[in-house]
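Predict the 3D structure for this chain.
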Amino acid sequence: MRQDRRTVRFAKVVSFFAAILLPSLVFLPSISQADTTPTASRIPHMTKKWDIDITAYRMDWHPSKPIIAFGAKNNEIHFRDKKDGSLITKIELFEEPKHSAGFSYLDYSPNGSWIAFPGYVEIDEWSFDKRWIRVYDTSTLSLAFELESQFNISYFDWSPDGDRFAFGTSRTPIEGNGSYNWTYIMDSVSRQILDKFQSPSYIHEVRWSPDGAELVVLSQSGLQKWNESGTVFVPHAFPDHTGYGDLQWFSDGKSVLFYARRTIKAFYPRLMVISHYIELEENIGSFALSPDDSAIAVFMPSQGLTFYRVETLERIDKVFTGTHVWDLKWSPDGSSLAGTSVGTMMVISYSEQSDWMLPLLLTIAVVVVVSLAVVAYVRRQSSRRNE
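Done. Predicted structure below.
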């Protein structure tokens, strides 16, 4: 009888330690090495981190600090803390009433030392005296340099190494063949023009490839690819009053995404081919590809903010925004997604974890079943001896 009691106690002790130690084996691989779980078997977690009541326009994340900058009303650039949205500092851009910031773009230089945005001097509601790119030093909050243009400076982008920048000047001609639409590539230090080329119609965006070897220009007539060998054009007409844009390169530099109406399209610069990537339920307001190429965030007016997995193109989650989001950007580490809109600036926390709950529950279940079986067996043996 005493031996049976010892056996029962032993079985319970073994079960107890097994219940503690076996689950740790589930977590051991993720502790000892990087998580290599396939993207499709990970669980996304999305929560609204913070939002503030302010009308925000274009924005950009600091490349190495937890700071997000955005253009706000009253010609201001706000620099906010990633953690809680608190105001760190701001730049008040213009004192003259006719001077205004367009905020069709806001772009940190790759090392975070400069930030660029467009501006103009207004003559009346529909006429402008001059237009410019202004670049501010982010440490002193002072003007570093500006470039004037006779026409709209529709978009601006730093090269990945920061040595060059590109921008497009545009004007929709009343008649003629669009002789105002030029893309310039300039040296960041000397501000000398390194190259320029013409587009057949209004320039919407310019975007450098991840390695800085190519530049893609999106215009109302299609896409252009520039590199040291020259420029190649792929026709793709966008009808008037059609939403399109948001050029987003995949990190391998093999393709670039953009949207047109309710479709996200892919442009393959090496093949010079445009194809459908994913077609959605309604017109797209804005979208953003995560830095690790694993997820796409899309804003649609009635759907809110919807997340899709790149690997499978399946919908993985949705966040209601309550307002029209016109700019989306992931933080450099992919842990947060920011959105700007009329009346609200928001940041959403995003993470993907391995689906470890099922293996954990199965492990515990096996331990419990084995323990109960051992205890039942010992008790049965003890009963037989007593008989």
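The helical segments are 2-32, 357-386.
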